[in-house]
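Structural prep section.
Before we set up the soaks we want a predicted structure of the protein with calcium ion in place, mainly to decide which crystallisation condition to try first. Input record follows.
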Amino acid sequence: MKISKFLVMLSLCSILLIVSGCSESDNPAEATIPDPDANFTWSGETVTPARIIFHNHSDNADSYYWDFGNGQSSIQENPTITFDSPGEYSITLEAENENTGKKDTRRKLINITPGRVFITRLQIEDIPFTTSSGAGWDLWSGPDLYFNFYDPNDNLALHSTMVIDLVDSDLPIGFTVTNPYECEYWNSSYIFRLYDDDDFSGDEFIGSVSFRISSIIASFGHAETAAIRSSNNSISIKLYLDWE
Ligand SMILES: [Ca+2]
Ligand SMILES: [Ca+2]
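Run finished without errors. Recording the tokens verbatim:
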């Protein structure tokens, strides 16, 4: 009785040994290695020049290839990339398991917004052709219009050429900013002051238009043109903006 029980146990053990031995030899080693799973996140300010740190969260991979959609690529695990221009970029990470040769790809979009803005041109669309008392700016002709443009510290930033004897049909009248002017302060007011040039009596102040870049973005986004007006609506200016 004792011997037969021992024999049964022995044979069970040997069956188990054979079964487990068979399972090891039948399955290739790769099958026990899970497939790679590519994944990533990023951190950093997405405003140009945007220095973005990519965080690799891939599983079961040991070799990486990044394509940042801006002509740059990397084989680093956690690369840092600077985006100098605004736009929507498609970021692709290919993660490979070098033992199995298997790959997985993950694609995400990153939206880089402009951090710089330049005035390249402006157009005066409307001005009042009479003073507050109802008289014309000059006795026998239209105003001799020019403007000064001041930064938020009230420093003169731009001074226009003069348009002699402006009449309504001359409007809109455009001014190109030869060296595009960068508005560095986005939360402070820039101001245009318009004048009628008078030789003898001192120049007459026609009015002013002020704006903030932050307000322009709120109203127009990063559009190429923005309409700004004086507080009493009598002066209207169209700004041509280059967002970088
Ligand atoms: Ca005058
Ligand atoms: Ca005049």
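Observations: The pocket of calcium ion (ligand 1) is lined by residues 137-138, 196, 198, 204 (CB under 6 Å).
Flagged for discussion at group meeting.
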